[in-house]
Amino acid sequence: MICNFCYRHCNIEEGSSGFCNVRKCIDNKIVSPNYGYLDAIAIDPIEKKPLYHFLPGTKTLSVAEVGCNFHCDFCQNWQLSQSEKSDTIKQIKPQELIDYALAKNIPSISFTYSEPIVWQDYVVDTSALAKEVNIKTVMVTNGSFSKEARESLAPLINAFNIDLKGDEYYYKNVCKGELKPVLDGIEYMVEKGCHVEVTTLLLEEFHTIEIVEKLGKLLKERGVEVWHLTRFFPTYKMNDSDETSETFLARMIEVAKGSNIPYIYGGNSSSEYSTYCNKCKKKLISRNDFTNNIEKECKNNIKNGKCSYCNNLIYGIFS
Q: N or C end of the chain, less CB within 10 A?
């Protein structure tokens, strides 16, 4: 039986699992034994996804099942992503999650922490219900969708943060994945009008000026307008590696700006996270520590999606 959740299209024999070890063939059907068993649930600032141009200053209900279709040596959430079986004893059905978000007055639900591509049946079911009650949905993903997944998710998910991890060598040797499906996923979601922000976790051991220049070019060609470059901290199979320095991050941000992507941010860093108008350069959103009233500042400085100072259109969804 063929699983159509990701680009791998695993052919799974009876009683076996796909590459992700999550999707299984039981009684000649591909099933998700962990469906609805959420091993992580939290209320986060939307900025922590990271999403800086999607409902700034609001909270999001973050949830995760276990599993991933990549095996990145540097994974920051490996306890969830590299697990095969849920430790949770209580299943949370999609409607229960919607009811919880409504009760807490949370405007969005984020499928995050692990890789929601491999548990997208839960994502799809929950997102369809969310749409009925005007709750927005977010997918934080490695972007390696199958064609079928792209087509089913694009109409349902309001915002994507997609990782673009590195070049072809990096994907193959460090992530056990492929670059092309990710680029195809980014391109598709941008073309369909979904809100898309991209994140690249920088490792000094692998990422060079030439690689960052290449990634910037690839993203610019696909219409990406928001790019997060974040620092790596030692964990999982790279626990003995050095953390990415602030100096290296700052240098790569300057390199990335050469791509002419209008909004570029540093992450996991002491660098400034604020949003400026890319035309008049006025500061529109201050978010140095995410504790100030971002939502109020956004309403004052971005009206009808435009800069209040110069009327320049600002990429994003702000209300």
A: C
Lowest mean pLDDT among 124-138, 195-209, 265-279: 265-279
The pTM of the full predicted model, rounded to 2 decimals, is: 0.97
Residue ranges with strand state E in the chain: 24-26, 29-31, 40-45, 59-64, 108-111, 136-141, 159-163, 195-202, 226-231, 263-267, 275-276, 283-285, 302-303, 306-307
Distance CA 46, CA 138 (A): 9
**Residue 89's CB: how many other CB atoms inside 10 A?**
6
Q: What single DSSP character describes residue 313? A: B
Report d(CA 102, CA 80) in Å as an integer: 26
For residue 53, the domain's CATH number is 3.20.20.70
pLDDT in tens, 234-292: 999 999 999 999 999 999 999 999 999 999 999 999 887 899 999 999 999 998 766 56
Total of domains in the chain: 1
Domain that holds residue 117: 36-273
171 φ, ψ to 5°?
-60, -45
User: Rounded to an integer, what distance in angstroms lies between the CA atom of residue 65 and that of residue 34?
Assistant: 7
Rounded CA separation 156/159 (Å): 9
**Any domain includes 267:** yes
Asked if residue 162 belongs to a domain, the reply is yes
Structure tokens at 126: 């929950």
User: What is the per-residue pLDDT for 230?
Assistant: 97
Query: Helix (H, G, I), strand (E, B), or coil: what is residue 262?
Result: coil
